[in-house]
Amino acid sequence: MKRAMRLLTLLVGLWCFAAFAQQQDEALQDAPTAETAAKALADTRDDPAARQKVQPYNNAPIWRQVNSAQAFSTQLPKFEGGVLIEPRGEDWRQLRNGPMTVWGGWFLVAVLILIALFYLYRGQIRLQEPPTGQLIERFTFVERATHWLNAACFIVLGLTGILMLFGKHLILPITGYTIFSILGILSKTTHNFVGPLFAVTTIAIFLIFVRDNWIRGYDIRWLVRFGGLLSKSSPHVPSGRFNGGEKAFFWLGVVVLGIIVSVAGFVLDFPNFEQTRFTQQTFWWIHVGAALLFLALVFGHIYIGTIGMEGALEAMESGYVDETWAKEHHRYWYDDIRSGKIPARRSDDATAAALPSQLRG
What we know:
It is built from 15 helices and 2 strands. Helix content is 68%, strand content 2%. Strands 1-2 form a two-stranded antiparallel sheet. It has helices at residues 2-30, 34-43, 48-54, 60-66, 88-122, 141-170, 172-175, 177-209, 217-224, 244-269, 277-305, 312-318, 323-329, 331-339, 349-353, and strands at 135-137, 320-322. It is elongated.
C-alpha cells in the first residue's frame, strides 16, 4: 500500500512538472520579439487606448500630449485654458534658477564691493571750507515727500524681489520651509500691490524734477571728469542744481529703467489681458534684468546720499543746505541763487514757519 502511494505521488509530480513546462514553452512561443515589441510601442506612440493594450498602465502617450502645448477641449478655452503644460516653462525655470540667479546675484555683490572699495579710497566727501550758517532751500516739502514715498516703495520692492529671486539660496537654509513659505507668500503679495504705487510715484518724480534735469554742456564735462570725485584735493566740477551723475541717474534709472520695470511689472501683475504664459515668461526676464540694473544704480545713489557725501542726507531730510555746500557741489546753481535768478527759498511762509528756527531762511 505504501509503495502504491509513493508511486501515485511520483506520477502526479511528474504530470505537474510536464504541464508547467508545456505552459512555459507556449508562453515563450507567444511572447513578442524585441522587434515586434518596438513596433508595437511605435504604433501606439500617440494612442493612449492602444498603448494600454500593449503595455497596461503605460501613460506615456497621455503625458506626451499634455506636454505638447497643443490645446485640447475645455470649458474655458481663453488664456490657453486647453493647454495644461507650457513646455517652454522648463527652459525658463532652468535659466531662472541658473544664470539669472547666479550671475545676477554676483553682479549685485560686485557692485557693493566696488562701492566699499571706493569708500575706503575716498572716504566721505567733506566740505573744503567751513559752513557759513546761511541756508538755501534745496528741496521743497512736496519734492521730499514724493522722493521718500518713491524710495519707500523701491525699498519694499527691492527687498521682496531679492527674497523671491535669491531666497531659496540665502533664506531657506536658515529658516526652513515653513517660515520661508510664509515669507515668500507675503513677499509676492506685497510686491504685487506696492508695484503700481511705485509706478505712480515714479511718474510724479519725473514731472517734479524733469525741469532741472535737462542735459547741459557742463554736465558732459562733469561726466568726463566724474565730477572730480576721484581726487581728494581738487575742487568739484561746477554743475547746476543737479550734476551730471544725478542727471544720468534720473534719465537712465528713474526714466528708462523705471518705465521698463513698471510696464513689465504690470504685464506680470495683471495676467487677465490674454497674455500667454510665454509672454509672461519673456516679460519676467525684462522685469528682473532691468530691476537688477536699477538696484545697482540705487546702491550708488544711496551711498552718495548717505555716508558718501557730507550734507547730502540732511538736504533730503530738512530740504536745506548750507551756502558752502551749494557753492562747492553745485556752483552754477549757487551763482543763479546769488544773482537772483532762482529764489533761495521756494516754500511758502506757512511751510517755512513750521520748520525749526535754524532752518528758516
